[in-house]
Amino acid sequence: MISIKHLSKTFHNPDGSVLTVLKDVNCDIDKGEVISIIGPSGTGKSTLLRAINMLEPPTSGEIWVDGENIMARGYKLDKLRRKMGMVFQSFNLFEHMTVLQNITYAPIELLGKTEPEANSEAMELLQKVGLAQKADVYPDSLSGGQKQRVAIARALAMHPEVILFDEPTSALDPTMVGEVLSVIRQLAKEGMTMLIVTHEMRFARDVSTRIFFMNEGIIYEDGTPEQIFEHPVRSATKAFVNRIQKLVYEIEDDSFDYLQIHTGLNQFCIKYNLSGLAETAYEIIKEMLFVHLKDIRPLTVRITHAELSGETALDFMVEGLKESPLPENQAVHSLRSRAKDIVEEPTARGFRVKIILR
Ligand code: ADP
Ligand code: MG
User: Fold this and answer.
1) Which ligand has the shortest distance to the CA of 88?
2) Rounded to the nearest 5°, which phi and psi values hold at 203?
3) Could you tell me the distance, in angstroms and rounded to a whole number, from the CA of residue 158 to the centre of ligand 1?
4) How many Å separate Cα 111 from the centre of its chain?
5) Is 46 in the pocket of ligand 1 (CB under 6 A)?
6) For residue 44, how far is its CA from the centre of ligand 2 (angstroms)?
7) Is 327 near ligand 1, meaning CB less than 6 Å away?
8) Residues 236-259: pLDDT tens digits?
9) Bridge partners, residue 64, by sequence
10) Is 83 strand, coil or helix?
11) In a 3-state reduction of DSSP, which class is residue 14?
């Protein structure tokens, strides 16, 4: 359905600098595929999506859509826009139109639908994304998650052959990520062809037929979710998919700033959508530092979160110890029952107690 050959994009900036963002992108996308594009930021993921629908004309290469080269002179971009829907990180709704008008505008203007036709179809789409009751309100009264669901309904109203999503959940409060992902999941089930740039690794693994890992302006590795997430071949892919987010505190003595830890921990949990764990984690850190490990100083506390597996843990690391600093008493038994697991293990430089929260 879409075939991309030797696509490149070079930006010539006003200050005279030149930046080649896409170097040599090649891929074939079939009807019904759900492809998640992952990779470090700044590697050209958005630029690739914008090139595919010609919002950002490529520098060289070819893009074939349904057997036609869309970069050829004379190709009608209207036709392309009808085939491809786009959903942006920042929603891009028309603020001066109601939700319903946002959805019916393009079908009336571009597809020549009558207003009643467009309205009844828009209502069906709003039903589908769970927002029928919001048809007559303006976007500024909606939450971010609701806005993004309207944006998806608006894209669907054009009956696109493919929808391109550019980080559809990145601008959302973590509590709203799920409602948007579940709409996209539903579309995947229905066989919609989609290209999704996302940082939600677990979602990408669950929903996609294929993953493109972009790095350094190319599709650095592609494969099934299993290949990319479980058995990546190239080391940069491996490092990216297995990356672990960490927050580290050095505890020198008892004058450490526990409020700083509390704040840092809360921010960390919000960022990685772990808000449900923040209080438990803080209670356990306090308990470890002030009760079980009160005589152990200095030590290092780490909060770790593996994005792909979802494992979140608290590490307490002590240099120069050969045995676990954790006593075997009643209080520690109670701690064990609150954790998913506790791993006590020697490290290269000392000993680590790892409390796995989930
Ligand atoms: P990603 O989506 O993977 O984070 P982007 O495609 O947004 O990456 O950007 C890749 C690089 O191209 C970045 O360094 C960005 O600054 C640059 N870039 C993107 N759009 C433009 C533009 N219109 N003009 C100049 N540079 C741009
Ligand atoms: Mg981007």
Assistant:
1) 2
2) -60, -50
3) 28
4) 33
5) yes
6) 7
7) no
8) 999 999 999 999 999 998 888 888
9) 3, 69
10) helix
11) coil
